[in-house]
Design goal:
about 350 residues; alpha/beta; globular; binds S-adenosylmethionine
Length: about 350
């Protein structure tokens, strides 16, 4: 039997076989899910407006984690060129060799004059200055599942029986048990008998490695997530796993290994604690809708009246998907982290929920 995090590691990243390392479509209508940069370039255009001041002030670069199809990189580079704020370099840290190739192809096809700025790296840079971007990457970090019993913390593991992967339990090891006890201390009480949820034991290390690599700059982390108190609310007793297969979202990670995406919502309080412990300021924590509205969405609509009716309808559709609470507007958040003497981006100027973390 193995822990769920190890199962996820194999199912998502096993060389040539994992969801992110094999050649399946993944993004868009014929894939399993769509992300904000795939829905509309508006997402990347607003992010470019927010990144430009730091890039100019630091004469810095961009570091993008998990660039997917390359759609966000294309939009960021195009828009930053328009804003006369091209980064000194655009580094992509991507775990999937197959996606690296797709990103390269897309950049060469869509922004041939800018593609040479982009480099693919396989380890964090040293003394990075500039803007870090990760859209829907934290949710892909492997998580452990636990079940509370009155006098113990159990780990929900993955075993194999009659040709199927099945859940099995064992007493949690020290790191998982300690993390659950720390969460109980934070929320002010022991979980009920049978309460089941997840923790990402790798999250702290991911944030601390990232912040150790950043000398000065702003980090934008986008993902679906909530605060610790919401994550571990009594009624949320089945956890936050989310699997994606051909636009069906469900919470059964043990089926379709390697051909479905397995994710978990992000506990942003955990991100904030780790960031604070490693010398970063929390620039803000806002919904995706507010990030876009505070961040200059209206600047992108200046020529709306000049568009054809069909174009207006299409743009309105994209804005609705990105901002409506029932779509991506509310569940998706942006957490901003600042390191060094950088200006807090305007995107966090209104509706900041950092005090709830
Ligand atoms: C859900 S996709 C999001 C893609 C893209 N950011 C977007 O918004 O369309 C997750 C991306 O993160 C990459 N990824 C997953 N785990 C990663 C990690 N630990 N470090 C860097 N990239 C990772 C995947 O290969 C994939 O490109």
């Amino acid at each position: 039997m193995i822990g769920l995090a190890e199962f996820m590691q194999h199912a998502l990243y096993a060389p040539g076989l994992g969801y992110y390392t094999a050649g399946n479509v993944k993004f868009g209508g014929s894939g399993d899910f769509v992300t904000a940069p795939e829905i509309s370039p508006l997402f990347g255009r607003v992010l470019a407006q927010q990144a430009a001041p730091s890039i100019r002030a630091l004469q810095g670069g961009i570091l993008e984690f998990g660039a997917g199809s390359g759609a966000l990189a294309v939009t960021l580079l195009k828009t930053l060129a328009e804003l006369d704020a091209l980064p000194a370099s655009y580094q992509i840290l991507e775990v999937s060799p197959e996606l690296c190739a797709r990103q390269q192809e897309k950049l060469i096809a869509e922004v041939p004059e800018l593609a040479s700025i982009v480099v693919w790296i396989d380890a964090l840079p040293e003394k990075f200055r500039g803007v870090v971007v990760a859209n829907e990457v934290l949710d892909a970090l492997p998580v452990e599942r636990f079940v509370r019993s009155p006098d113990d913390v159990l780990q929900l593991c993955v075993g194999y029986s009659d040709g199927n992967f099945v859940y099995q339990t064992r007493p949690a090891g020290t790191p998982l048990r300690q993390q659950v006890l720390d969460i109980e201390a934070k929320i002010g009480g022991q979980f009920a008998d049978g309460y089941t949820s997840e923790v990402s034991l790798g999250l702290k290390g991911w944030i601390s490695d990232l912040l150790a690599a950043v000398d000065e700059g702003v980090v934008f982390l986008f993902d679906y997530g909530v605060t610790c108190h919401e994550y571990y609310a009594a009624e949320r007793d089945l956890g936050w796993l989310r699997c994606h297969f051909r636009h069906h979202a469900h919470n059964e990670p043990l089926i379709y290994p390697g051909i479905q995406d397995i994710t978990a919502w992000v506990n942003f309080s955990g991100v904030a604690d780790a960031a604070f412990a490693h010398g970063a300021e929390i620039a803000g924590f806002v919904t995706q809708a507010l990030f876009l509205m505070n961040g200059g969405l209206e600047n992108e609509l200046a020529d709306f009246a000049a568009l054809t009716q069909v174009e207006q309808i299409e743009l309105s559709r994209q804005i609705k998907l990105l901002t409506l609470p029932s779509e991506m507007g509310e569940h998706f958040k942006c957490m901003g982290l600042c390191k060094g003497a950088v200006q807090v981006p305007d995107a966090f100027s209104f509706g900041d929920r950092a005090h709830n973390l």
